[in-house]
Structures are given as structure tokens and as C-alpha cells.
Design goal:
By secondary structure, the protein is of the alpha/beta class. The chain is 39% helix and 21% strand. It contains six helices and five strands, in the order E-H-H-E-H-E-E-H-H-E-H. The longest helix has 21 residues, at 135-155. It is globular.
Length: 156
């Protein structure tokens, strides 16, 4: 049986940076049958780092949902491989300080094992402290929920 983690990443008090957390929460509500499967593990990760590495050690595959910043239109949904995430320009680094790409690289170096990683990114408009989700990101959350569901079915 393939064990899959669905991990929402972001900081809940930093505007669109909370999109990953919110998308996973809403996906869980919209697709309770999938979310309730014993092979699906659901996590929220406010600061990727050692806790993310530990979570990935217990699964065969993972779907990471996070806000990203590039030159795309706010609200754009990206499906990225681990290598594609690492290719985002340095100006698109995570608001978490130690970003997801760096954490995944460290995990690979430390463990030497491979976990099937799929990253669903949503283009952030703003990540201001104390702000809520922007309208563009809020409108894209239902699409993110559908993409999460598709990715899980592809992995299981």
C-alpha cells in the first residue's frame, strides 16, 4: 500500500503565504472520503525544515501545497517537480526563511532515499504580515482542491 502525505505549507498570518494551509484544509472538507483513507496522512507545516523531513520519512509519496512567487499572474496554479521547484529564481524564495527546495535537498543528502514529491504551488500576490488571502488566491483555492484530489488519485 502506498502511503501519501498531503502537506499544506505556509504561515497563517502572512497573507497569501497561508494558501497551502487553507487549500489542504478545504480539500479535506470537500473530499472527506479520500482524506479519510488510512494511506493518506494530512499535515500542516508552518515552517518547513526538520519537521518536514521527519514527515517525509514516514511516507512513500508526498504532495506539498505552498504559495510561490515568480512572474506568473497571482492565483496561477503550478504543478512542479522537486527539480522544477529548485529552479525558481532566488527572488522567489519562501517567506519561511528555510524554504521547501532547501529542505528537500537537505533531506535527500541526509537520507539518500527518494520520496515521490509533487508540489502544487499557487502564485502569491502578497505576503504581508496580518493580511488575509488576496482575491486572486482566494478564487483559486477551489482549483487547488481539485488538483490535490487529482494528484492523490494518481499516486494511490
Amino acid at each position: 500500500m502506498t502511503r501519501v502525505a498531503v502537506i499544506g505549507i505556509g504561515q497563517s498570518l502572512r497573507g497569501d503565504d497561508a494558501a497551502g494551509l487553507e487549500a489542504v484544509r478545504r480539500w479535506r472538507e470537500k473530499f472527506p472520503e479520500t482524506a479519510g483513507k488510512p494511506e493518506v496522512q494530512i499535515e500542516a507545516c508552518e515552517l518547513p525544515g526538520l519537521s518536514l523531513i521527519e514527515t517525509l520519512s514516514n511516507v512513500d509519496a508526498a504532495i506539498l501545497v505552498d504559495a510561490v512567487q515568480s512572474s506568473a499572474k497571482p492565483g496561477t496554479v503550478h504543478r512542479l517537480s522537486e527539480n522544477e521547484l529548485a529552479s525558481f529564481p532566488s527572488s522567489s524564495k519562501s517567506a519561511h526563511g528555510w524554504g521547501v527546495a532547501e529542505t528537500l535537498r537537505l533531506r535527500s543528502q541526509l537520507t539518500g532515499t527518494k520520496v515521490g514529491i509533487r508540489i502544487i504551488g499557487i502564485e502569491a500576490e502578497q505576503m504581508e504580515l496580518g493580511a488575509g488571502l488576496s482575491e486572486a488566491v482566494e478564487n483559486a483555492i477551489p482549483i487547488l482542491c481539485e488538483v490535490i484530489e487529482e494528484e492523490i488519485h494518481a499516486l494511490l
